[in-house]
Give the backbone structure.
Amino acid sequence: MNDLQSFGPNIWTVNGDDVRMFGVLPFTTRMAVVRLETGGVWLHSPVRPTPGRQRAVDRLGPVEHLVAPNKIHSLGIEPWQALYPSAKVWASPEFNTRHPDIAVDAALTNDAQAPWRGEIDHCTIDGHGLLDEVEFLHKPSKTLIVTDLIQKHEVAGETWIWRTVKRMAGVLGEDGGTALDIKLSVRDKAAMRQSVETILSWDFDNLIISHGHCVRGGAKEAVSRAFEWISRT
């Protein structure tokens, strides 16, 4: 099961292939994998499946849920959907406006009654002009799962130009946080602040993100620091 990396009780990560944002900016990718109490498997922001990744996930149980946490993260939804046609696709509220050809079973609005809600809480981020992101709390492992709102891109392996760009954007290394372009695209600061306050009220100690360094232990402080820009405005 080399493709799966344990992150806590019944939660794993899988590193995917590197992608290029806008065809230029290099990004590493990661999905979170949860085995639910039902025995079914929940995939957050699925990376592209490979035979090895599929075998590793299959060993955990049947894939029941595919989660597209914002309208940008569509890369692995259709390939996993083709492999597991009975799996339900859950997507951010605006996902289908960008991807009308991808079949979605339900939108993850704040009042959505997801079948995993006893184990996983979710909060749709309100007030952003471009990024409709849904954050998740895996309660058994006290793990917050974030997609693009917090980024901590690896320094190793980056060229100097991309290190410079990512440092200027505020997303380089373990001290990274919210990208500058995301900060500048907030439409309603009060609404977004309320969403962030909901997330910070959750009981978590660990953090999985899609791009860069995850955090084991002390994540509440790290997330609070990453969101100071909206909490204090």
